[in-house]
Design brief:
mainly alpha
């Protein structure tokens, strides 16, 4: 059994925490870009494309993230493509995140009163001009809080990437636990680091939501 002090455990976990943060940012930023594209297609792509986007959202929301990670890692390899755990985790989490952000943002746009669309339409504004000058400025204010709040789910979702061999915080905790035979101490530290990472984001999302509701009241 390796003789690891508490500081040694925390130091190694903090090194792995970097990859949890990086993977979370890749999934969140990539998912945001894909989600924005899907939202545009859903609104302006016609009924067929709208249904396809809706099916995409239902598929990723209705299946476990764990299964999506397995399919990304093992499924693509069936076509003779060598996929690293890093690539598979990034792709799976990006697609998963995009499905949820698309639905969050669609709801925010749909919450804008119909009169705003009609008023901007009466000014002979194009769809792009309506979105840029009238709809999006209002929808963004509503969307900020739930979008930031969803980031917490993305951070916690990265823990599942450990099942395909991606060494992030949870995987590192498992490896250190096997080496030290101190699972309670190790995973208590893992839980603490997740809390330290997620709690400020949750608090920030709640403050944003409170401010948004206060301005709308």
């Amino acid at each position: 059994m390796a003789d690891f002090s508490l500081w040694d455990i925390l130091r190694n976990l903090l090194m792995a925490l970097r990859w949890t943060v990086v993977l979370s940012l890749i999934a969140f930023i990539g998912g945001g870009l894909v989600g924005a594209l899907l939202l545009f297609l859903r609104m302006r792509g016609g009924k067929a494309i709208g249904r396809a986007v809706s099916l995409y959202v239902q598929l990723f929301q209705g299946t476990p993230l764990l299964m999506q990670l397995f399919l990304a890692y093992f499924g693509i390899a069936l076509f003779g493509i060598d996929v690293s755990a890093w690539t598979a985790a990034s792709v799976a989490l990006t697609l998963y995140t995009s499905a949820f952000l698309t639905e969050i943002w669609r709801g925010c746009v749909a919450s804008i009163p119909k009169g705003q669309w009609e008023a901007s339409g009466s000014l002979a504004l194009s769809f792009g001009e309506q979105m840029r000058h009238v709809i999006l400025p209002q929808a963004v204010k509503i969307a900020i809080a739930p979008t930031v709040g969803f980031l917490v789910q993305v951070i916690k979702g990265t823990a599942l990437a450990s099942v395909i061999g991606f060494v992030e915080l949870t995987k590192a905790g498992s490896m250190i636990s096997n080496a030290t035979f101190k699972p309670f101490v190790v995973f208590s530290c893992v839980a603490l680091l997740y809390f330290v990472l997620c709690f400020p984001v949750s608090l920030y999302a709640k403050n944003l939501e409170r401010k948004t509701h206060g301005r709308r009241a």
